[in-house]
């Protein structure tokens, strides 16, 4: 995007222009006034003329300004991406640890049950089995410890960097900039690898030569991929939806919800107005717009962005409601948009025409903070066919997937899920358990990467698996949620706009359900708001 709001926010925190008396350690009478890029050292005139002759150098002021700018960018990257990334990974690891503990209990019971039949053979094998099972848990515990250590180190250096930045001592700024950038580079290359080894049991005949096969122990890596392991994780997790509040608004129709802290901006595009409201319905502020928007998102600094398809642009909305163009998309019309929670990129749906059935441009573009176009998603690279018919919404999941609400015909919709490089994973059109075809009026994602869909046709909110598109749960209220139109999700709080002008706020908590074998599981996936 055209301006860096992080820089605007912190541009006055430090002043590198004020005079500082910096003396050379080797020539005490000489001031430090140069910086050697080759040696990464601060120099005086004598050092520069002697030991660093013919080196690439610049004035100390210029080097300080560059380091100051780079350090701000790294601090922003740490704050907006890596701390969040570590939190998400820690939460996923905690969930896997809980699952492993339950798996261990089941495995221990099966081990003991089978070994009793051949106890005179398998005392040694039993200990080996338990050791292997425990090792998987220990591996995950080690991973959790590593994540905590890396986060603690990053937070410590992050706080230290801010202190250095505020003191404005140029050598310290340069050194801290280098250290923090090095830590971020290490995080980029660090693999958050969950243990893939699985232990399987199967029945076998009692025979000494085939004892290992009879017990059913397989120490090889599971045939199931990590993706299938995650499938098991999410299917064993159920969510509880607790009602926090519900109220009605004066506006006739809710067309956008954008949570900000404990409140949320709620808009009606047709009347070109909206308001910031507390979770009890109290209005804090009001906006009157001078254009008709299509979709709303927010940056990491809580700045609102709106797509304006009529004028072929994306606008930012100031506190007073005054809009400013931050992205000119002409001649394409922007519809759905979102800001990535992983790297602050802007994802925007672009169409050459807003007419249904047009064979023109239909694509999703990824644009970074500097305004550079990084990615375009338009064609299925396997079939060579266009992916989209009419782009309505785009969202990015915490695993990097791109999720698109696509209108196929006037009465047919689907959800298209692509991985981070734009390759198709699956299309969700609904299931036999739903009364009607799905109409995704809005889409959000939670920290476990589950896809939450407000289904206007089926009067419910669907929780969809991010890897296979299976329906994990169906959220209803007293039988249904009449015509859910828009969602807003922040933390564990879900805002639901439904039945025209009504708001429903629920707290979402997740826990492991009792583990059962899939073929015997008969529990309903429908969940009512408590």
TrEMBL record:
One of its GO terms (molecular function) is zinc ion binding. Keywords: Coiled coil, Metal-binding, Zinc, Zinc-finger. SMART domains: BBOX (SM00336). Residues 83-117 form a coiled coil. Residues 24-60 form the B box-type domain. The keyword Metal-binding applies. It comes from the Eukaryota. The keyword Zinc applies. InterPro entries: 6-blade_b-propeller_TolB-like (IPR011042), TRIM45/56/19-like (IPR047153), Znf_B-box (IPR000315). Pfam families: zf-B_box. This is Uncharacterized protein LOC111106704. It comes from Crassostrea virginica (Eastern oyster). The lineage of its organism: Eukaryota, Metazoa, Spiralia, Lophotrochozoa, Mollusca. The gene is LOC111106704.
